[in-house]
Amino acid sequence: MNVTASAPVGAWRPFQFNVQRCFAAVLTLAFLALSTAATQAALVYNVGQTEVIYTASQRRNKGLDYWVDGNLGVVPIGNGQYHFYGANGPTPVRTTGTLADPAQSRSNVSITGLPSNYFNYVAGGPTYFDATTGARLMIYHAERHASSGQDYYSVLGMAISTDSQGLNFRDLGVIVEPDVPMAQRPHSIEVGGGSFAVMNGDMYVYYRDYLEGGGSSELAVAKAPISTILANAMSNQGTSFTKYYNGGWTQPGLGGRSSSLETGNPGNAWSSVSYNDYLGGLVMMSSAWADPSGNNDLYMSSSMDGINWTPRQTIVADAGEQMYPTLIGTGADPTHTGQSFYAYYTDSATGAWNRWNDAKLVRRLITLNNGSVPPPDPEPTPTPTPAANVVADFQSDFQAGGPAKGWKYMWNSNGKLGDASKYAPLKWSSAVGAYNTTGGATTVWNGKSHNDDYLMLGADSGHPGRPGYYAITGYTIQTDDGAGLYSLIGSSIMKSDTIKTGDEDGLDLLLYINNTKLGALQSVSTTGSLLSFDRDLGQLAVGDTVYVMIGAGKNQNFDLFKSFDFSLQRTSMATIPPTNPNPDPIPNPQQPVEQQWVAVAGFRNDFQTGGPAAGWKYQWSATGKAGDASKYANLKWSATVGAYNTTGGATTVWNGKAHSDDYLMLGLDSGHPGRAGYYTIAGYTIQADDGAGIYRLDSGFISKSDGAKTGDEDGLELLVYVNNIRMAGIETVLTDGSLKGFYRDLGQLAVGDTVYVLIGSAKNLNYDLFSNFNFNIEKLTAITPAAASASFAISAVPEPSSAALLLAAMGLLGNAVRVRRSNLRN
């Protein structure tokens, strides 16, 4: 893992004392002792002396040239022995040993099923051991390199091992990727090692997120239920994680937004978390970004809920780089810490890209001592119950003469996007019956090109300008709309002509919030098919503007569009009323309401023989067309085949004469499409007891059953529809057998709406059997979590035997000690 010494823009470095480093620990103890005396802090910690586990030469002699390049994973194997998983450069290794001598032997670790030739670096990492199944779940750090190994984009993934030695892992896919796409990275993107803790039935994975539009969440978190993770993993399926963002678990782990968890967003070069049984909460050790002298200090903080963290306090303030911390407990489960535990980390005088020249593996013993508990923080404001409210609708609000309140009709007259201050307003043209750039006749090509040729915007239609010039619709959140969680729903657009003419190409559609682009560019097809661009927008404030931009592709030929519409929906604030028929004599404080995604349907969980379960449809596109659900035909259960097919008997196969449904079938987790152009379809209709609400398709997976391309074999196509509207583009399932994940924000769905997943052949149906097929339909639901214990703070005071040291430090305080805050890296 390639961590440099510089902090990203938007991250604060912690306070550093401007004195010689040899006095840093003494001064820290002195200041914190005074603070503790004044506040009667609850907890005291003592930090032991540095123990050198391996010098640089000892490490290299064991074949561990770049170890540990991240967090350690630890699995107990009995008799005081452990398996340790860690990165030795770009590949993982497993060492065996004791806590005092963790690398008595070394073995290589393999991860199969990774995308071919995609990642340049894959290694881990934090490991969860399930005693019931014997499975080991490893979180790995993966990198894609650009111009060099120092220019990279990293993500977190998960893999499972079920062999007794834990050496052979199978990839379960990526679980966390940054908000900013690789193509928009301003520098290398380092997410960290994915240190985790299991609490309240969920796995909390901590990482650093980089934000689309700039800045970072130096400490962010994503979670998923551990039971779901294990169940899916045992079936070689991945699990979708959800990022914490603005008070709720509402953002996808892959590319979603995130909130920084620590006050002030202090810099976090690397971190390790652990559930602490002694405290009943989490502890974290962080390595800060290096100061101007190249020193990285280690800090500790704590949290009772995994979200709200106490201010950091110094643990190690030695000269040089202190990096890659891992907290290890001494009990039966080393992922849990107790009153005493070890902090392992690398210690290098040079650091950064040169750290492996001299890096030692060291550890320190940390001991917690409880004291009186300070008053708990005030109860948080309850999180709202989702209650949908449409605040704006393009077609309904459209008016002639000038935009309605909150609306903007514009174009990027300078040919650039991302600076809304430079967009120019369109003018109402009575002559055209639309908004254009002149207020009169729309500018058209007359032998001389104009940037705004044909550009206009009407009540449900319009035309972009020349390539690079967009027709722009914007809506600004008004005071009476209010801040809240917003979604873009009910969206649609299509090209007015239904066939491709000459060199006609599609339209480009982009979404922005203010000056920040949301997601990738979407294409409007030349076939006249309807495109939906619904998506969750996250937390918006009054004054934020949502822009929808329509542009030409490579040319503007036949680029008139129609059926253009979208709505903005706000999830309004409300609290769940009490439901206890016998309330306590003294009412308890209102518990916070939390928004979580809850599965209402799961393909594999709900699959049954004989006929589909309530809400489900197993069908095929008998007419060869997708997008008209009324023409889909039901599949029939075949006891002969053990799957649904078109006959209810033997599956139709090629016998020298082609049939549209050759090989077409759908089973518990597998199936086969028909001929090219014909689809196997799984659909789920929102039921009355599911209720209307905000939905998503999650945990979608599929792979081709054979693991290598044979002859002219090509991939599969996968599409998602809501009713007759396609959600985003066609996805391809590769011929190499790699697991394909698919996910969709479905927006607001009503009872009776149907979500369809279609699997089809590409150009031929050779070797098109698929497996590992599954997906869930999830609804954003308000729940009241169990009450959390009061938060606590960790403070440090010297041991009684350190009184003389404290007095010496107090003497130093008489000198002019200058405290400064490190500047942000520009």
What can you tell me about this protein's structure?
The chain is mainly beta and 826 residues long. The chain has three domains: 15-370, 5 Propeller (Tachylectin-2, Chain A), CATH 2.115.10.20; 388-571, Jelly Rolls (Sandwich); 597-783, Jelly Rolls, CATH 2.60.120. Helix content is 6%, strand content 42%. The chain is built from six helices and 57 strands. The strands form twelve sheets. Strands 37, 42, 43, 48, 50, 51, 52 and 54 form an eight-stranded mixed β-sheet that branches. Strands 2, 3, 22, 24, 25 and 56 form a six-stranded mixed β-sheet that branches. A hairpin with a 2-residue loop joins strand 4 (73-78) and strand 5 (81-88). Helix 1 (24-39) packs across helix 6. It is globular, with a radius of gyration of 29 Å. It starts with 14 loop residues before the first strand and ends in a 5-residue tail after the last strand. The relative contact order is 0.12. Residues 5-42, 371-386, 573-593 and 785-826 have low confidence and may be disordered.
Outline:
With 826 residues, this protein is mainly β.
List keywords for this structure.
Jelly Rolls; mainly beta; 3 domains; Tachylectin-2, Chain A; six-stranded mixed sheet; disordered C terminus; single chain; 826 residues
Most strands sheet:
8 strands, mixed
Silhouette: globular
Multimeric organization: single chain
**CA(first)-CA(last) distance:** 23 Å
How big is the Rg?
29 Å
| CATH-assigned fold name of the largest domain | Tachylectin-2, Chain A
* Spans of at least 5 consecutive residues with low confidence: 5-42, 371-386, 573-593, 785-826
Please provide the count of β strands: 57
The class by helix and strand makeup works out as mainly beta
Number of helices: 6
Number of domains: 3
Can you say what the CATH homologous superfamily of the largest domain is? Glycosyl hydrolase domain, family 43
CATH class (first level) name of the largest domain: Mainly Beta
What fraction, in percent, of the residue positions are helical?
Answer: under 10%
Mean pLDDT: 83
Strand-residue fraction? 35-45%
CATH architecture assignment of the largest domain: 5 Propeller
